[in-house]
Design a protein that fits this description.
- It is a single chain.
- The protein is α+β, with helices and mostly antiparallel strands.
- It has four domains: about 60 residues, no CATH class; about 200 residues, Thrombin, subunit H; about 100 residues, Pdz3 Domain, CATH 2.30.42.10; about 110 residues, N-terminal domain of MutM-like DNA repair proteins (Alpha-Beta Barrel), CATH 3.20.190.
- Helices cover about 20% and strands about 35% of the residues.
- It has eleven helices and 29 strands.
- Strands 23, 24, 25, 26, 27, 28 and 29 form a seven-stranded antiparallel β-sheet that branches. The chain has a six-stranded antiparallel β-barrel with strand order 1-2-3-6-5-4. A six-stranded antiparallel β-barrel has the order 7-8-9-12-11-10.
- β18 and β19 form a beta hairpin.
- The N terminus is likely disordered.
- Belongs to the peptidase S1C family.
- One of its GO terms (molecular function) is serine-type endopeptidase activity.
- InterPro entries: DEGP_PDZ (IPR041517), DEGP_PDZ_sf (IPR046449), PDZ_sf (IPR036034), Peptidase_S1_PA (IPR009003), Peptidase_S1_PA_chymotrypsin (IPR043504), Peptidase_S1C (IPR001940).
């Protein structure tokens, strides 16, 4: 063992014949080398610590470019609790809890995603928690816009705002630039995710029928990161809101700023605009010649203008939109955006506030015209409308009827979502989930219409034609007498939802 340790003290290869000769010639040199190696062994603990520190510094080096020190204190965890209504048993609710991220902005407010704090019904509760704290502060949703998936929270607590500084909103990050996402993906610790800006795209957001700009980064963002700030050089350049295994989406700051400064009459009103028209690209040379376009002209062909559009009665079908506010529209319906990128021309309209105007240059029958169009807000998405109302239902003979889709109150598919077991409906158990096509041979338009057809029935037997040619027949009076017993058995207060009892819109 002693010899082995001695060998460790002597420089590698020292016991070769050449170095053995050196030992005899210059023992002082050998002693110096041995002492040097002995010192290294005696200080091995310090060396190990230095090595560990160097490795830690190397691991932390990429994060040094991310100014997260004091910024992390402005990022909060959000707790959302709601009792959501069941779609098949609409009189029942079920607990729904989720977490997300938000961050402080000017005016003592918290910015987050709309889907983090969905205002579903009166049972909703939202709380926020500061970094390093166990206290959950009650929050109020001051403003929400589902089409851009953003919401603003207010916290009425001086204690909460102590040491909380608002984050500054920056511009659009350059392509291939590294950005850092801050959020509470898991637990109560802030997770920092690094990603490179990959692209700019115009797509529909989660709860929107409107195409808005989004930034794609090559990083995975977990669910809890939703609503978290995306940082570049001390400023927020986006808000995290959707993610996948290979990339994630950010809401760019122009959209964020537009939402924050948007003038709304109510929390549900849209802050984005739309021309309200359908169109097609016009690249083909033959169609260009047909509409008398010169070789230097680019634009899009208007196919239809919606009745609610501010352009209705001003622009016309077959007009070619050449430019919007002086910005030429390309044949593929895009306009210049950022760093030689191009996005949908709708961006020029969306970033304006309802009531503002836009100058539209069109080609009509070979002549150019310019029109000032008063812009209208985008129409709310169907799913957004559902957040703010109880689901519709009607119960007869233990059969629970609900609308298959709320796309239109005038035209709905109605189906049997549940069958509350009773002697009156025995033998019809397999009819669950079937669509109701007719009541007493009258085609069903929507759920309200179905309820009216049943309530106004004057026949001894009521019949329903279902999908797959199934037929349902009930003794009307017997079913009516059974309903109160069935409702009481299932603790249901009413056989019909309130929205069906009032006047039809």
């Amino acid at each position: 063992m002693l010899v082995r340790n001695l060998r460790a003290l002597v420089p590698r290869g020292f016991f070769s014949s050449h170095h053995s000769c050196d030992v005899r010639i210059n023992p002082v040199t050998v002693a110096g080398r041995v002492f040097s190696n002995l010192s290294a062994i005696l200080n091995v603990g310090n060396n190990d610590r230095s090595t560990v520190e160097e490795k830690q510094n190397r691991r932390m080096k990429p994060k040094e470019t991310c100014p997260v020190g004091s910024l992390k204190n402005s990022v909060v965890k959000i707790f959302f609790v709601s009792r959501d209504y069941s779609r098949t048993r609409p009189w029942e609710t079920r607990a729904k809890r989720r977490t997300g991220t938000g961050f402080a902005i000017s005016g003592k407010r918290i910015l987050t995603n709309a889907h983090v704090v969905e205002i579903l019904n009166e049972h909703t509760s939202v709380h926020v928690q500061k970094r390093g704290s166990t206290i959950e502060y009650k929050a109020k949703v001051q403003k929400i816009a589902h089409e851009c998936d953003l919401a603003i929270l207010e916290i009425d607590s001086q204690e909460f705002w102590k040491g909380m500084k608002p984050l500054e909103l920056g511009g659009i990050p350059p392509l291939k630039k590294a950005v850092f996402v801050l959020g509470y993906a898991t637990g109560n610790r802030i997770r920092i995710t690094k990603g490179l800006v990959a692209s700019f795209e115009t797509e529909k957001y989660l709860h929107s029928d409107t195409e808005l700009v989004r930034i794609q980064i090559d990083a995975t963002i977990k669910n809890g990161n939703s609503g978290g700030p995306v940082i570049l050089e001390n400023k927020v350049v986006g808000v995290a809101f959707e993610g996948s295994q290979i990339q994630s989406s950010l809401i760019p700051t122009p959209i964020v700023k537009h939402f924050i400064t948007g003038d709304e009459e109510s929390d549900q009103q849209s802050v984005f605009c739309s021309l309200g028209l359908s169109y097609q690209s016009i690249k083909n040379a033959q169609i260009r010649n047909h509409f008398k376009m010169s070789s230097t002209m680019t634009g899009i062909l208007i196919n239809k203008i919606n009745l609610w559009s501010g352009a209705y009665g001003v622009l016309k079908k077959n007009d070619i939109i050449l430019a919007i506010d002086g910005v030429p529209v390309a044949d593929d319906a895009t306009v210049p955006f950022w760093e030689n990128e191009r996005i949908s021309f709708n961006y020029l309209i969306l970033i304006k506030k309802p009531g503002e105007t836009s100058l539209i240059k069109v080609l009509r029958r070979g002549k150019e015209h310019e029109y000032s169009i008063n812009l209208k807000p985008v129409k709310p998405h169907v799913r957004v409308q559902q957040y703010y109302k109880r689901p519709s239902y009607y119960i007869f003979g233990g059969f629970v009827f609900v609308p298959k889709s709320d796309i239109s109150k005038c035209e709905q598919h109605v189906f049997i979502s549940e069958i509350l077991a009773d002697d009156i409906n025995q033998g019809y158990e397999s009819f669950k989930d079937l669509q109701v096509e007719k009541v007493n041979k009258v085609k069903v338009k929507n759920l309200r219409h179905l309820s009216e057809l049943i309530e106004e029935n004057r026949k001894q037997y009521l019949s329903m034609d279902l999908e797959d040619d199934k037929v349902l027949v009930l003794n009307y009076e017997s079913a009516k007498k059974a309903d109160p017993i069935i409702l009481k058995r299932h603790n249901i207060t009413s056989a019909i939802s309130k929205d069906l009892t009032g006047p039809s819109n």
